[in-house]
Amino acid sequence: MDKRIVFIKDTGMQSADRTRDFYAAFLDQLREGNLHETVQVLRVADIGLYNQGVVVKILPDDIVYCNVKDSDIKRIVDTTIKEGRALDELVYGGKPKQIRIVLRNCGKIDPESIDDYLSVDGYQALRKVLSEHTPETVIEELKKSGLRGRGGAGYPTWMKWKFTRQSKGQEKYIICNGDEGDPGAYMDRSVLEGDPHSVIEGMIIAGFTIGAGKGYFYIRAEYPLAVDRIKKAIGQARERGLLGENILGSGFSFDLDIRLGAGAFVCGEETALIASIEGKRGTPRPRPPYPSVQGLWDKPTAINNVETLANIAVIILKGGSWFAGIGTEKSKGTKVFALTGKVRNSGLVEVPMGITLREIVFDIGGGLLSNKGIKAVQTGGPSGGVIPKEYLDTPVDYENLQKLGSIMGSGGMIVMDEDDCVADIAKFYLGFCVEESCGKCVPCRIGGYQMLEVLHRITEGKGTMADLAKLKLISESMRKASLCGLGQTAANPVISTLTYFENEYKEHIVNKKCPSHKCKSLVTYSILQAKCKRCRVCVVNCPENIIKGDREKGFYIELDKCIKCGKCFEVCKFGAILKE
Amino acid sequence: MEKPPEAKNWIKVGMSTCGIAAGADVVFATLLEESRKRNIQIEIKKCGCLGMCYAEPLVEVSVEGLPAVVYGRVDKEVAVKILEKHVCGKLLVNDNIFDFPIKKQV
């Protein structure tokens, strides 16, 4: 029998960590029963549950107890450890929230070894496709699976492949879009770095299905490790006869190449991406014709996101209906999110569609970093919007997020607490889009700039109520008249913050106050004489030397010279600096 | 193409950009060097990112008779402890295990 192991962790966040006390008590109890030689008790750093009191996990039985009290220790040792029976009243009833399909091999296999990938059923889907499937049956399987593009818009993958297959022409292309540019999103990088062969396998199957002989990886140059690993993986696949002429004796020939993006956000848009691969300037063109009809070098082209392609092999192996069993009615499968911002456990999470934002932030992410309340969650990067805390219980899928004025996007998810100012956030995202606008069409180039000017005015306390109407008007024209997705969605962060937090904007304009104390021009610092201990820490730390006064009479800040750096606020240990 | 059998005892170090930024390369080098010094026979390999970026560098260890566990925030010191205590002594190391529940795909 395997040795028993007991994990202990206090997951309560309100009071002091009691893990060590319980650890000691458990050890004592085990010694009493003379079990300390055969059972190991451990303090763990994280047990995957939050706000569940003291959690005790017993291995190899895999029994999890939550909200354990001191008085329960004896029973646990007597019943579960000695006799192997679970104490039903203490068992934690929740199920794991994460399901790993796309990230199935990430962190499990050596990405630089094809043998590792083969040992986890790698390239079995390709074998199956080449020996048992026709392109039509692959499309049928994908249709059954309900897989939709993971790049953000959620276009059904089977339709994209079908249209590309149906387009006339001998030469066709498949492109993997690895130009992940949303601030704070890095799902694709992780997949490319952690499991490159799964994406390659998806590409080969896509090539077979649409009738392409050549595929391109378009990866941003800021991901050198991803590029390096994909390059290695392509070489290994070629050596094994999985790429090149007559793959696995099937008569199907296909090869892959890598193109690097030079750092322009707009090149993640498919027509701009195609122009970039062709060696032209990366600017979008009007659609139609869609790339599935006229794409790379005017030949029919299918462009899929990294995450979409990483799903393909599993769907082929396990069947479309298996995949369709996960998720909601219209959004199937899982989605990888890059959970960042003011959340305790930032990182990648892969969750089934239909999970709520609350579950993601609090059950997986472990809640907020600060003890401040949550304000909103931003999804979809610069094309998305904010979802205020009132809507945290909405099931996450393509349609629901759109209804809330945001989008699924590629999967960035930024948690904001009460310290974040919505106008500031809107300014940041819009500023990003203005900088990344290619300048080809007027609504995006000029509209974005004008909106940004208005936002600057508002955050500096110079805004008027007419500015809000102006923001709405410009954003509407940008949405209707811009050439590509970048311009059409650039105003989304502004619109969604305006919808949900109009009062905060008004506060900036009418009362010249920033409720989150984030907008520098609207914040003032002063010294609360009642709390001040006259220790002079602020005086010493002020970079402008404008805190005047002496220990006798007290200190004051020369407001007209204050640069509002916030240093005094940070260093004061007595809370004597008032920020308002 | 034969499936190569997986070794029973192994150490996997998360070596994606996030891991390396947090110092996984140092941990990897330490594990290699220290295991050679102590003449410990164990497969040590590089892997991708497990997703728990807040706890990088991540090291997953599997030793026969013990459950596979993930250690987080591993530094040189913890790396040596893993070798001495976990691999040789067959006892898990306190305070650095990050256990997170993930439903296995059906």
Explain this structure.
The complex is a heterodimer of chains A (580) and B (106). By secondary structure, chain A is an alpha/beta fold. In chain A, strands 11-10-14-12-13 form a 5-stranded mixed sheet. Helices cover 39% and strands 16% of the residues of chain A. In chain A, β3 (54-59) and β4 form a beta hairpin. The mean pLDDT of chain A is 92. Chain B has 106 residues and is of the alpha+beta class. Chain B is 30% helix and 18% strand. Chain B is built from 3 helices and 5 strands, in the order βααβββαβ. Chain B has helices at 17-21, 24-37, 76-88; strands at 10-14, 43-47, 59-62, 69-71, 102-103. A 4-stranded mixed sheet of chain B has the order 2-1-3-4, with helices on one face. In chain B, α2 crosses α3 (76-88). Chain B starts with 9 loop residues before the first strand and ends with a strand. At the A-B interface, β2, β5, α3, α7 and β11 of A face α1, β2 and β5 of B.
Helical proportion of chain A?
25-40%
N- to C-terminal separation of chain A?
A: 63 Å
Provide the gyration radius of chain A in Å. Answer: 28 Å
Low-confidence stretches of chain A: none
Radius of gyration of chain B: 13 Å
Tell me which protein chains meet in the greatest interface and how many residues each side has: A-B, 58 and 44 residues
Gross morphology of chain A is flat
What tags apply to this protein structure?
heterodimer; A: 580 residues; alpha/beta; Glutaredoxin; Ubiquitin-like (UB roll); 22 helices; 39% helix; B: 106 residues; 4-stranded mixed sheet
In short:
The complex is a heterodimer of chains A (580) and B (106). Chain A is 39% helix and 16% strand.
